[in-house]
Amino acid sequence: MPRLAVYALVVCALAVAAAVISFVQGSWLGIVWVLLAGLSSNMAWFYLRRAKAERDARRARTQAQA
After folding, report:
1. Alpha-carbon span 13 to 19, nearest angstrom
2. Distances (CA, A) of 37 to 28, 30, 42, 60
3. Which residue from 3, 16, 34, 53 lies 20 to 30 Å from 60 (Cα-Cα)?
4. How far apart are CA 9 and CA 45, in angstroms?
5. What digits encode the pLDDT tens for the residues 9-51?
6. What are the respective helix, strand and coil percentages of the chain, to the nearest 5?
7. CB neighbours of 29 closer than 8 A, spacing ≥ 6?
8. Is the pLDDT of residue 56 over 90?
């Protein structure tokens, strides 16, 4: 798993926890945390898909050369 995807997933999990805590305390600041969680989850998906595409392209190149 790419390192940046792992970091993005960690940020997503922390942002979700912060959002829950903010909403439990009655603060509307949790909306910002929800938005950050959405952004970081999209980043994680992007990095995972990019790594998979690179791996598939590398595999196709090696098969074409063989």
Report:
1. 10
2. 15, 10, 9, 34
3. 3
4. 9
5. 999 999 999 999 999 999 999 999 999 999 999 999 999 999 9
6. 90, 0, 10
7. 22
8. yes
Nearest to 9 by CA among 36, 44, 60, 54: 44
Residue 40 corresponds to which tokens in the numbers above? 């970081």
- Contact between residue 40 and residue 33 where contact means Cβ atoms under 8 Å apart: no
Tokens representing residue 6 in the block = 């792992």
Single pTM value for the model: 0.84
Distances (CA, A) of 17 to 8, 20, 49: 14, 5, 25
